[in-house]
Amino acid sequence: MRAGSALLRVGDELLAIQDDAFAAAWIDPATRKTRPLVLRGRGGALEKKVKPDFEAAFQHDGRIWILGSGSKPNRCEIARIDLDTRESVLLNALPLYGAIGRALGRTANIEGAVALPDRLRLFQRGPGRAAKASFTVDVNLDVLTGAPPRVLEVSNYDLGVHGGIFMAFTDATALGRGHVVYLAVAEDTADGIADGAIHGAGIGIIGAGGARWDVINEVDGSVSRRKFEGIALDAGGGGWLLTDPDDPKLPAELCRVEMKF
């Protein structure tokens, strides 16, 4: 599996999303064994200009939802997977991404999504060379069942700086009690779509009082420079991270992370 872009805990398994194919992978975290989940065709790797750019995933109403970034017209699809049958369908979501772009005044670049009780919260990734370029965009939850998209709220975040580069959202997951855990990287880019050098990564928590975060360190205590793009939490407070090495010849990495909130 290449180009890890989101990670989801589904029962005892992990679902790893990749951005360059109409396919994902089920992972048994105990044995690390995997099996493919094909969403369209054969699920093979695609060139950058035609890839679906799936970047976010969440569970809601007995289904898994996998969202494209929306950064180009061909990246505006949503994959819906039934948890009972594991069957999937692809939905065109151009109206949703159009509403996001109009609300932000810039092209959508969604990297994370969380279903809250009364809304769907989407995480817009900004460029590493610009301050306060990351946003959350809340839309009506029934947009998932065909309702016209309505932007309910837009919030702008300063996620901090590491190595002289601004942190930007790369994934998010619900923690409970209205709190959201997010993943961010400091990537040296002039826009939120291009690839660049990674200066660091962090995990943060957003609650009623704002957001707080800390850097991710390797086992030896050094600052991690992996490009983390997926996060899934365990009940005990630990979790898993998924990387995108930005090289089609290299596999994505599944990493164990320990956290204290």
Short recap of the structure:
The chain has one helix at 94-104; strands at residues 4-10, 13-18, 23-27, 34-38, 54-60, 63-68, 77-82, 88-92, 110-116, 119-124, 134-139, 151-157, 161-162, 165-176, 179-187, 198-207, 210-215, 228-233, 239-243, 254-257.
Q: What would you note in describing this structure?
A:
The protein has 261 residues and is mostly beta strands. The chain is built from 1 helix and 20 strands. It has one helix at residues 94-104; strands at 4-10, 13-18, 23-27, 34-38, 54-60, 63-68, 77-82, 88-92, 110-116, 119-124, 134-139, 151-157, 161-162, 165-176, 179-187, 198-207, 210-215, 228-233, 239-243, 254-257. The two termini are 31 Å apart. The model has no long low-confidence stretch (mean pLDDT 94).
Give the topology.
Blueprint: E1 4-10, E2 13-18, E3 23-27, E4 34-38, E5 54-60, E6 63-68, E7 77-82, E8 88-92, H1 94-104, E9 110-116, E10 119-124, E11 134-139, E12 151-157, E13 161-162, E14 165-176, E15 179-187, E16 198-207, E17 210-215, E18 228-233, E19 239-243, E20 254-257
Question: What are the defining features of this structure?
Answer:
single chain, 261 residues, mainly beta, Neuraminidase, five-stranded antiparallel beta sheet, four-stranded antiparallel beta sheet, 1 helix, 20 strands, 49% strand, globular
